[in-house]
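quick one, four chains, predict together pls
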Amino acid sequence: MRAQAPERAEALQKGLVDIGQASAASGVSAKMIRHYEEIGLLPVVPRTAANYRLYAPQHVQTLRFIHRARALGFSMDEIRALLGLWQNRRRPSAAVRKIAQAHIEDLQQRIAQMQGMVDTLGHLVHCCHGDERPDCPILVDLAGED
Amino acid sequence: MRAQAPERAEALQKGLVDIGQASAASGVSAKMIRHYEEIGLLPVVPRTAANYRLYAPQHVQTLRFIHRARALGFSMDEIRALLGLWQNRRRPSAAVRKIAQAHIEDLQQRIAQMQGMVDTLGHLVHCCHGDERPDCPILVDLAGED
DNA sequence: GCTTGACCTTGCCATTGTGGGAAGCTTCAG
DNA sequence: CTGAAGCTTCCCACAATGGCAAGGTCAAGC
């Protein structure tokens, strides 16, 4: 990993970093940073004469925001909305809360669905003796009712 | 929905059905039936002279198996393995159980991850007053630590 | 016999979010 | 100068599903 090279291009001295450093500082892969730019989550950043992207601290901050939001399971569209609110000083906190609340409910729904699967499978696994004999209630269930 | 048309083609009298009927009888969309054939989950079935796929009851049974397994969250690869065991009369039930057990653990891991998100978000939502004021602990969290 | 509508066929594109890799240029260090 | 590492763009892939379009087919009604 190359350490900070202040002579990188004339602009690096102004606190701007290249995509690799922005990636390391934010936890977002360079691949994803480019992708976020492409889909409009990130602004189009300036480039060096050699066409390298240059990121200001503010951009790195945005990347961290996205990274954290992804870790909480927000979708791209939700993150887009959250970023808009974050950057709007006159936002109503109710709008943020509404997005988060809806996301919680979405997560809970998915959890309930998966928990249902776990319950069903747990029962079947419990009933399956699991030895070298071929009869198996799991297969019976899969083949049978539907 | 077309009712059973036994005179469909000369072969339909042998209990063979077209893809629409196989779909209705199994709960798997025609689109997905073709896809499963393409990826090798289903055998390549015979066709009529007009190139229509013909499904025997055995194939419909397999489709129901897949449908049920999908409903329990098994991946295509897991279903492929389960189908192989199902069709093998000398299978050890332990092999089936192992797949199901691994799938349960996978589900539980994902549930735990999502539950962690719910917990974090629940706390943040609880702390957000959710009115017209702009200050919001949810955004502070997203922007801040990472 | 011909039309009509419902069905079948293939093929291509979109999704969500991420990774891999190729081909080519840039930068830096030795 | 050369090599390694990093940047650029572009294309492909995943898993599983849906949608649409263009064309063939079949059964039923007139």
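The two ends of chain B are 55 Å apart (CA to CA).
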